[in-house]
Specification:
The protein has 1 helix and 10 strands. With about 140 residues, it is mainly beta. The structure holds zinc ion (ZN) (2 copies). The site of one zinc ion (ZN) has 5 residues, from helix 1.
Length: about 140
Amino acid sequence: MSNDPIHHGGCLCGAIRYEVHGHALQTSLCHCEDCRRASGAPAVAWTFFRPNALRWLQGHPREVCFAERIRLFCGDCGSPLVFIDPSLPEFTEVNTSSLDYPEEFPPGDQCWMADAMPWMDRLEKLPRFEHTSPLPDTE
Ligand SMILES: [Zn+2]
Ligand SMILES: [Zn+2]
């Protein structure tokens, strides 16, 4: 237990900070409509840890229960942080993008493709810019 890695994370505004102990059990990019609406993003990367692996270090997340699943988020800035599915008690799902080093947790699969935006497949072909994209011509 003492050799368990510890990963830190938090919300956009910094009101909420947490740590998770142990190795990731699974990683997945979820395309479901619920994740999409809860996050405002077309897909959400999740990293699965053991139950009770997570400890809140600062602040108190708000909870929303929808479809019998619980989503924890920052009540100040709205960042989605944690997902708990009571039908999957063996996992605590942490929003990968809320971790301080999300690059360490690449998704191992993509789930809920049934809900996926049809344009997700075409992202590879889009023009790319290192920072902001050029503004549209308004003339
Ligand atoms: Zn916040
Ligand atoms: Zn989802």
